[in-house]
Amino acid sequence: MSQDNFIPTTKSIVDIYAETKIPTQIKRYRELLQKFKSIYGFEAEFIARSPGRVNIIGEHIDYAGFPVLPMAVDRDCLIAVATTSLDSKVRVANVNPKFPTGEFTFIDRDRIVDIDDTIHEWTNYFRAGYKGMLESLKLEKPAGMFCLMDGSVPSGAGMSSSSAFVCTSSIATMVANKKNLSKNDIVQIAIASERYVGTNGGGMDQTASVMSHADAATFIEFHPKFHTTPIHFPKTIPAISFVVANTMVTADKVVSAPVCYNLRVVETRVAALLLAKELNLLEEKPQTLKEVMDLYFTTNEEPSHTSVTERWINRLTKMLELVDQLIVRREGYTLSEMAKAVGLSENELHARFMSKYPIRTDIFHIYTRAVHVYSEALRVVKFRDVCESNQGTIEDSQHVLNQLGELMNESQTSCRDYYHCSCKELDELTLICRKAGAFGSRLTGAGWGGCTVSMVPEDQEHNFIETVKNEYFRPKFPDFTEEQLNDVIFSSRPSSGAFIYKKYSAVNPFGG
Ligand code: NG1
C-alpha cells in the first residue's frame, strides 16, 4: 500500500493548514500543549487531528448508497495524547471549560467500554471512536491514555463536529497503541463507531474528515465499492469561493433522530423495498435506492451512452419516472398502509426497520423522499461533470458559475420541499445569500438548522459577507461582537484531511 493510504504524520503544521492560517494555528497548538502539561504534569506525545467538512452538494443520499461531494474545512478536532503502560484507563479533558473532564477504564476485549446513548455527554463521542478502534485492534491490554481535546468545528451546525471528534478519537487510540491502520480501515471503523452514539448515519463525514486533500472536494462513492476521487473546482474568473454561514439554529441530530434523521433513513429504506416489490426485484434483497437502481438495470435495457456521466443521468432519470409511476400515495403512508404496500405485516416492518433505531411518526413520506434521493444524486453527478469538463481554459466563466450555482439552489429547494430537512431560518438565510450575490446557496449537512454553504465570486467575498451580516446576523443578534460574527460567517477553502502531529519524542514519565 502506498504512503497515501495511511494517515500522514508531520512535525510541522505547515503541512496541515493554508499559509494564512499558520500564525493562529501555531498559537492554538502551543496553547493546547501547554495546557496539557499544566493539567497532567507532563508533555503530550502526539496530537491527532481530523477536520469538519462542508458538503457542497449531495444531501441525505450517502445512506441511500449514492455519491456525495463534500470538502474538508480547516476547522478541526485536535486531541493531544500521552500514554502509559501502567493501566488501561482513559482520561479525557477539554480546553473548553463547558465540557467537564471524564474518565473511564477499558472493560475487556469484547465489551471495551459502555456507552449510554440516552445520556447526552460529550465524552460519548470519544468513547465511540475508542470502542470502534479497539474492537478492530482486539488488544488484551490497551495503553492508558491522557487526552486533551480542542475542537473548533461548531457543533450542531451541519459541519460534522461529531464525526471529526469520533475520527480523531479513533486515530488517537490507534496511535496510542502503536498501530497503523489504513485510512480506508479507519473510515469504516469511524462510521461504525458513530452509530454507537445513536444515529444511523451514512459515511460521508468520516470519509471527508479522514481522506480529504487540500485544494479539492472529494467525490465519495459507497456502492458497489467504496472509492474517493478528488474533484478540483473550475478555475473561473472570478475564482470560486465558498462561504459558510450558521443560522444559529442548533440541530441536535441525536436528540431529534427519531423524528428527523433516523426517520429519513427508514423512509428511504422502505421506498427501496416498495420499488423493489413493484419491480419484481425482492429476491435480490436490495437495501438502498442505489441498489434498486443497479438491480433494475441488470435486467432492463438502457439507452446506449457515451460516457459514465451519461449513464448516470439516463439511469437516474429513469428511476425518477419509475418513482412517479410506482409510489402512488403522494401524501404519505401510515404504518398499516405501508405494510400492505410492501407485503409485510406491521410487526415485520417494525422489526426490520424500526427496532434498532426507534422512530416516531404517523405518516411515512415515501414518495417525496425517493424523489429527493434520485434527483439529488443526479445533481451531484452533474456538478462533478461541470467541474471536470472545465479544468482547462474556461471560455465562459459566468456560464459555469451559473450552472454550479443553479444545481446548489435546486438542491436547497429539494431539501425544503421533498426531504423536509430545511427550516425557516435556513430558507431565509439562503435567500439572503443569493440576493447578496451568491451563485448558489443551500443548507449543508443534515439540516433542520445549522449552516448554509454559498458559492460566491472570490472578488466579492468581503462585500458578500458584510451584506449577509447586515441582513441576517446584525438584526437577529445585535449584541454580537465582530469576533462572534466572524465565527458564524466565514469563507472556507478545501482543506487537508486527518493528520498526526508529532513534534518530538516527549519523555513520558509513565513509560508509555
Ligand atoms: P451532519 O450534518 O454531520 O449531521 C449527517 C450525516 C451524514 C449525511 C448528512 C446529510 C452522520 C455522522 N452524518 O451529517 O452522513 O447523511 O447528515 O447529508 O450521521
TrEMBL record:
GHMP kinase N-terminal domain segment(s): 130-212
UniProt keyword Oxidoreductase, yes or no: no
Pfam families registered for this protein in UniProt: GalKase_gal_bdg (PF10509), GHMP_kinases_C (PF08544), GHMP_kinases_N (PF00288)
GO molecular function per UniProt: galactokinase activity
GHMP kinase C-terminal domain: residues covered: 401-471
This protein's UniProt keywords: ATP-binding, Kinase, Nucleotide-binding, Transferase
Protein name: Galactokinase
Organism from which the protein derives: Basidiobolus ranarum
